Fold this sequence. Notes:
By secondary structure, this protein is an all-alpha fold.
Amino acid sequence: MASLSRPVLGPRSTRILRGAIGAGVLLILVEVVTRAELVNPTYLPPASSVLGTTASLIVDGEFLDSVRGTLTAWAIGLSVAIVIGVPLGVVLGSSWRSFLAATTAIEFLRPIPSVALIPLAILLIGRGLEMRVALIAYASLWPILFNTIYGLMEVDPQAKETARSYGSGRLGVALRVSLPSAAPFVLTGVRLAAAIAQPLPHAFASVGG
Length: 209
């Protein structure tokens, strides 16, 4: 008679189950603490109230429109920053003279926070999606640009010389050797830029953006 074996949860399923149990215990603890008035409900609302409000927001059309607008501005602004920052970083990182020529302009613009440019952006562009995209792209550009430049500067010179010896021009060396080698730096810049761009739409909301 064949023995029946019990199904065994894998490591990933076990982690998910433990996380769900931990979250459930935390919610119950918050509910008990707030209902017993051990903590002021103004500062720590009951878990049931939080979950109920969250459920109502999920089906709220106005809230979903705001979320959609925020995600749209974030995605477009980050994409614009990538399209501008990566090629510009390749150019500046591949040529030391170009980097020195652009240093003054970069160091002048980089310290200016995007939030400080909101009045100027409203005056020139308006309060719509274009303004949010422009400022998100501006704020997201710098991590991508600098990481791309540093990544290009860290490429092994012998690899570039080998590519040149096989007949590759400057553009070929940049695309076939330098940019693939700098890809980890570029992706790190994109990840940092995505985190920087995320809270910006909330700042724009305060000025009617």
